[in-house]
Write a structure and sequence with these properties.
- The protein is 16% helix and 45% strand.
- It is an alpha+beta fold.
- The strands form 2 sheets. A 7-stranded mixed sheet has the order 7-8-4-1-10-14-12, with no helix packed on it. The protein has a 7-stranded mixed sheet with strand order 6-5-9-3-2-11-13, with no helix packed on it.
- A hairpin with a 5-residue loop joins strand 5 and strand 6.
- It is globular.
């Protein structure tokens, strides 16, 4: 009986450890995918959390080191319809980036597809207040809404500088069964890559969202990719997308 009791105790402890590690792995996954954010009153502990990027802060500084450019943006949507229509929305992102010696150009295409049935009515209308977060020195060229005739209409937008970022803000409405495509264009001047160097791209995932489809196209300017690095990346934005590559003259 004593031997059996010890064996059962060992098995229970092993089971408890397994549950413990399973729990921790799920917490880690939720932190990495931005479904959990942490705020602590202790400044030193909070700094450690911020360094791990688990605090929800978004640092859009382009500085990294000599001959290095840190390129970063984030798309943040907010449903203003006082309904649950965002549950029907499938969102995809495609961004074309041209890296040059003096400037980095961006064309971001965002597709919103509303799968709500027409019978849902107003409860399925997605009224979205969108913000594209870019560096403070970004030059914003405009926001466009594409229509079914291969044309487009310019959308009124606002620009706000808040802390260490610039926000490109605009309103769109997607009806049940409808699909809309938005283009946001901006550029960031920089001479960090005047002689070539390291290019870091970070696409920050919106906290609490499911994974968007993400397509990255690195286009040729007056710099070229080194070492046969790929120019196209297809992925899902389950967590922040991070890319490190190098360009030469």
């Amino acid at each position: 009986l004593t031997a059996l009791s010890k064996q059962l105790s060992t098995e229970v402890q092993a089971l408890d450890r397994k549950k413990y590690f399973t729990f921790l792995s799920q917490v880690y996954k939720a932190l990495e995918e931005k479904h959990i954010q942490i705020y602590l009153h202790d400044d030193n502990a909070q700094k450690a959390i911020s360094d791990l990027e688990y605090s929800g802060e978004i640092n859009l500084s382009t500085n990294c080191e000599t001959r290095c450019f840190r390129d970063i943006y984030s798309l943040i949507d907010a449903n203003l319809g006082v309904n649950k229509s965002n549950l029907y929305i499938k969102r995809g992102q495609e961004v074309n980036i041209t890296v040059s010696q003096e400037i980095v150009d961006h064309e971001l295409y965002v597709t919103y597809e509303n799968s709500a049935d027409l019978s849902v009515g107003k409860a399925g209308v997605y009224k979205n207040y969108a913000r594209v977060l870019v560096p403070t020195d970004a030059i914003v060229d405009g926001v466009r809404l594409f229509n079914g005739t291969n044309g487009y209409d310019d959308i009124n937008f606002k620009k706000n500088v808040i802390n260490n970022r610039q926000e490109i803000e605009f309103l769109i409405e997607v009806l049940p069964g409808d699909k809309k495509k938005i283009q946001v264009v901006w550029s960031v001047p920089s001479n960090s890559l005047a002689s070539g160097g390291e290019y870091n791209l970070i696409v920050k995932k919106q906290s609490g969202t499911d994974n968007d489809n993400l397509l990255i196209n690195l286009l040729k300017g007056d710099l070229v990719l080194t070492g046969g690095a790929p120019a196209v990346y297809t992925t899902s934005l389950r967590e922040d997308f991070k890319l490190k590559t190098f360009f030469k003259i």
